[in-house]
Amino acid sequence: MQVPGPDTRVVELRVHGILGTTGDELTDSVASVDVAGDGVGRIMRPADRLRRPVPGPMLNAGERSVPRIVEGYVWGAMTSGGLAKATWALLFPFALANMAHWMLPPTRTDNPVSRVLCSSLRALMRISALLLTMLMVAQITVITLDLVGSQCLAPGARCLGFVPEAARGADVLRSVVLLIPVALVVLLMHRLSTVSWRVSAPKDDSPQHSALAPMLPGGNVVSDPDTPALRALHVAAALATAALVALGGPLTFSLDPRWLVAVAVLLVAVIGTAGLDDPAGMRETSKLFRALLGRRSRRVLMSVAGVLLASVALLPGELAGPLPGSGATIDALTALLVLTCVAVAVLLLPASLLARPVWKSQPKQLRPWAGGWMAAPVLMLAAMLGNGFGAGLALSVRQTLSVPRAPGAAPLLLPAAFDDVTIFWGTAVVLMAVALVVAVPWLLVRRFRRDDEDPIPDEVALLHAGRREDQRKAASAWRIADLQRRYSHQLFLVIAGVLTVSTAASLAARFAGMPRLPWLSAIGVVALAGLAVGLLRMVFLAATKRDTARYLGVLGDLALFWPREAHPVVPPCYALKVIPELADRATEHLKDPNTRVVLVGHSQGSLLAAVAAARLLESLPESDRERVGLVTAGSQLQWAYPRAFPGVVPHAALRDLAGAMGDRWRSLCRGTDPLGGAVTTWNRQVYNGMLIGVGLRGDGTEGPLPAATRGPTGALVLGGDHWLPDPQRGPFSCRRWVPGVLGHSDYSGDPEWDRAVAMAAGLERPVRGAALPLSESPQIPSAPDPRAVGSGAVGSGAVGSGAAGSGAAGSGAAGSGALSPQGDDGGSIGDSVEDLPRRTAGETAEAARSKRTKSIRSFRKESKRPVEAEVPEQQSHEEPPSETAEASAELPAQQDSEPRSEPSVLPEITEPRGRIAPWERGSSLRSTDS
Fold it and tell me: Residue 288 burial by CB count (10 A; 0-12/13-18/19+): exposed, middle or buried?
């Protein structure tokens, strides 16, 4: 590590998470201005009253203060805001199917069976996405050309009576007018799939195969060069599907040249989609498909499909009554979609088993969800939403056109597949309701049983030692957050089971002759109509109200991180813009040899920051890598992303990143956070009054870690994880104060934030801080009897091991932070109210301080163990003027004594930089008593 010089400065480059934010909130300032970016990806700094950029507050690092520049990268405009982005919610099934492709297990390149299985799975994923596009266009065509044009506006029909009879008799007019919306939808799909964010950074053309495990996280999150070909295939297939609806469907053979051309276009689309599987162009088959689907070939294919639809519009045939091709087309596409989902679920089983050696050595809580099978339920959910939205829209339009229904008018008919969808959704709603009725009481009973058996977990008791009210609040929030993190992925497994049963029920009702239940179909109709109307209403509100747009943008924040791989008709991927621009901004700052850059990411931003840090480490020279740090807060980099996307963010990649970063990767976490959690540690437990665990090490390995140390503001630092007290210990001087349980919000308001940034910048050692003091014995069941402190049993275990030993206490004494709490946390955590400082009437604070300093010095002269640094003059507990040995012998008895009823004098709010935090004093004194 390079030694910091007198001109060293730190650039703290922050990235926000989901829901977006403003520059003021991201930089913790009352005003902010753009200093770089293109208006879509904005790099902002705090500003003064004249809106001029100003640096951030000084960063306290050990015994010195270092200039700090705070910058924030705001990317929320890429996923929310305006009517155009609001309509992206209608394409959420497509984005979900594309995300499922990135959830496939990694390919074992040394196993040919694994390579074949994974290639087949990727092909099936792309075919499923193609079928989703075709099904959506077919449903829109059924609504416009069949339901409205051929039935509602048929000659003699009484539906939409304001339409003149002359217009009803012109079949060409009706077909042209009602196929225009279909053509516009396909055109908009093509237009949207060509939109990509302009990257204001040097282009790095290094595509990697999405199935190959990267050496560092997100190394394969790159654009696919085959996306233009995939886009052309989707557009051609969509136009051919609309034509087939009018030409009798795909199952009825016809000698009409248009029917033959439509079938040929569909075959080309399916074969081409299945063959585009190698973005790097390493295989001969990939080179062949890429040559066949060049720019000229793509234009010819889309032109043929466009001419085909135009011929159908100009020569529609007879439009009187339901079209015979509607039901056949919907049935065929639905059946193929179900078959591909089943095939993916079946092939995922052996593919996951073959990939199991990659993660079988990991602890259970770090292995992929469902053994790497999570892509199947996500794909099923995408298919259910895509099919359900189209069916709900069709049923809503039919209901609207049928009210009021004229006497003697023929009813408007939809294909039988829509009735099957109502049974499917009705069964799904009933089963989900049953699952909720069973799951919610089970979770409540499980929670209350744990409350009775273990009211306050050991980690909570240790983190909030001496604060019983905070322990009770935190314990409840810890359990709720733990339930959400532990069982959230099982929701997808429940959905997969529900979809399987619902599919079987709808197939049995359709083909096995089982009686249809009217109430079940009614529930399905209501659910589908609610889905369609609710989604359209959300789009409208999001286009007109900013707050709704931000909440709707959550879907985009989660799904649009992933580049177009399986489905090209999805909104542009923001990661392809944010990550290169973050890395480029950091590189620009690193041109100054005195600058150190710390990438800081909160929630979803932690994934962006981690991938950007990995890109920096790959591109920078060795000398500059040591000036790059990483801080993640409220991150899902352990409990979610490696388990849901084992081929993109595997645990091994995080281990490699931790080894490349050394001790410069710090993670802020709270047990009360339902969305974030630990990143670098696991298997944590309280043993002998210490927090221990296993985690990632700075040398690129993983294993047992030294016992956690207590930070100046009460945080427990275990490995690279900083466990923050929530509620905070405070208020703190010169620091924004937020009371109550914070959960996933406001990490930057915690004083430990600055300490983590200083560590990530290499300006402070992670081992700095006192060893853990013991709390009252009834609050930590696993802690030993506090009376054993006098005999040295605990002193040798709690303070004399590794980084948590007396050296840690000494360094904490030498360079504690500038912040100290006020309120009821002013004294040492390990001491009772008896030990809080007192002074007699008339005694000045300076006299009390002088008296205390002399007592501490006399104590150290008598101690057998040398201390590394002199404790400066400070406000602390008074001791009797007797010999130090007697005072130390009485310390355990004082810890068990009853608190006095009269109020105690607490320390001052502020402590000068370099003094020991109040809760470190008792443990630093005890460390010399052995």
Answer: exposed
